[in-house]
Specification:
- This protein has 448 residues and is an alpha+beta fold.
- It folds into 2 domains: 99 residues, Ubiquitin-like (UB roll) (Roll); 327 residues, Creatine Kinase, Chain A, domain 2.
- The protein is 35% helix and 18% strand.
- Strands 7, 8, 9, 10, 11, 12, 13 and 14 form an 8-stranded mixed beta sheet that branches. Strands 1, 2, 3, 4, 5 and 6 form a 6-stranded mixed beta sheet that branches.
- Helix 3 packs parallel to helix 10, helix 5 packs across helix 6 and helix 7 packs across helix 10.
- The longest helix has 21 residues.
- The protein is globular and about 60 Å long.
- The two termini are 31 Å apart.
- The model has no long low-confidence stretch (mean pLDDT 94).
Length: 448
């Protein structure tokens, strides 16, 4: 608490503050306050209704939720995370953001908070003397949404539009150099470890990698904050940025690939056996990820638009399988240094909640390790051309049903979170049926 007060007193230019938590959809829910009242927020914490953590994508109450009326819409207590205050460089006025997460009145974590879901998984690894080391790759689109149809924004340098995908094109990056320079400066100010940027295979699509960290909660924080930053900063530059899974039917969608390894208490990577194949623990973790993948697809593809991305031949996996150095599979073991042996989980879209996504990936890996499971043989060749492989759910409705019926999900997430997530997604499914394709894009473009 003292550090928070010290930071604010040094930031004399800050005029307002925001306190915000991630709900089940990864939406930032919170409050604004004048900076002169910030110490009240720090000392007294913040109170939100617990039902706020599971509002639907429109921000509405879940109609049949027991949290709203049966329990009197009781408050939870929201306290600062380890992150502390940080600037919000996408806003015009100097503003500070304080990330928070929810607890019950008695001080216990609120199980419906997605950040607590990830914390619980990390504690499961800690009990075994293991620590996940995590890095994420975030893909997004820069979009001119000022007209009736979406298109790539004109380059601030040339005034021209890049009307075709240019994979790994330096020219495409340079066309938006002003935006990316501001983005990296903002990441530095917010202590977000943004590393390499590339242009991707979609129209106006880019990817930025995060540096690896041995703090999984911080990795998820970084992804959540980065998405907020990119979308806000793009608007300052006169266009939109979107992490929706598939804004253009004719181009590949945006993924959020996650790399992870595990280190023991000495700092040794327990996936490394000195060779390219990796250890038995690596195989057990892969087996756990594969076993849970079908039932947890709702976490990796949480929205109606998510399933437009998960189609064969679209640079997104559809079959539940793994392999070495193979980008058609769902779980890839990259080549490279043996000491950096790791797993790349390739299923999630850019539209996910990073806390839930990482909890699902690491929770599944932990289940596989604890049970000593063995995966099927790794595949070689094109996974899209192997119809005998088990497939991910083909639709949002199928994914909701699989999540609800799964005993595996109950081993990874608290009952309260599972119930809340199902209720949220069923309400969204019901109302999404009334939207046109154009209204669907409009909904998801800025929200996810």
């Amino acid at each position: 608490m003292k550090d928070l007060q010290t930071w604010l007193r040094k930031q004399t230019q800050v005029r307002t503050i925001r306190v915000a938590a991630a709900d089940l959809n990864g939406q930032a829910r919170g409050k604004r306050s004048p900076a002169r009242f910030a110490e009240n927020v720090i000392k007294k914490a913040t109170r939100f209704p617990m039902s706020l953590m599971k509002h639907d994508i429109w921000g509405k109450d879940i109609e049949d939720s027991p949290l709203v009326f049966e329990m009197g819409d009781a408050d939870g207590i929201l306290r600062p995370t380890e992150r502390g205050f940080m600037p919000m460089p996408w806003l015009e006025a100097p503003t500070a953001l304080l990330p928070i997460w929810m607890f019950r009145e008695n001080g216990q974590p609120y199980e419906g908070d997605p950040r607590h879901a990830l914390r619980a998984v990390v504690e499961g690894f800690k009990a075994r003397g293991l620590t996940p080391v995590v890095a994420m790759e975030l893909e997004f689109f820069l979009i001119d949404d000022s007209g009736k149809t979406l298109q790539v924004p004109p380059s601030p340098r040339s005034g021209k539009r890049r009307k075709a995908a240019e994979t790994l094109s330096i020219r495409a990056l340079d066309a938006f150099d002003t935006f990316f320079t501001d983005l990296y400066d903002a990441c530095e100010a917010m202590d977000i470890p943004a590393d390499t940027a590339i242009s991707e295979t979609g129209l106006g699509q880019f990817e930025i990698n995060m540096m690896h960290t041995d703090d999984a909660l911080r990795a998820a924080d970084d992804a959540w904050l980065f998405k907020m930053l990119v979308k806000g900063l793009a608007r300052r530059h006169g266009f939109a940025a979107s992490f929706m899974a598939k804004p253009y039917p004719e181009y590949s969608g945006s993924g959020l690939h996650t790399h992870f390894s595990l280190i023991d208490e000495t700092g040794r990577n327990v996936f490394d056996n000195g060779g390219p194949e990796g250890t038995a623990i690596l195989r057990h973790a892969i087996a756990g990820c594969l076993e849970a993948m079908h039932d947890s697809a709702l976490v990796f593809a949480p929205h109606a638009n998510s399933y437009d991305r998960l189609v064969p031949g679209s640079h997104a996996p559809t079959a539940i399988c793994w392999g070495y150095e193979n980008r058609t599979v769902a779980v890839r073991v990259p080549s490279g240094s043996n000491a950096a042996r790791r797993i790349e989980h390739r299923v999630a879209g850019g539209d996910v909640n990073p806390y839930l996504m990482l909890a699902a990936i690491l929770g599944a890996a932990l289940n596989g390790i604890e049970a000593g499971k063995e995966p099927p043989a790794p595949i070689t060749g094109n996974a899209y051309a192997m119809p005998e492989l088990q497939q991910l759910p083909a639709s949002w409705a199928d994914a909701i049903n699989a999540f609800e019926a799964s005993p595996i999900i109950g081993r990874m997430f608290a009952p309260e979170l599972v119930r809340n997530y199902i209720l949220t997604k069923r309400q969204e499914l019901h109302y999404m049926a009334e939207l046109t394709p154009e209204e669907t894009v409009e909904l998801y473009l800025d929200t996810v």
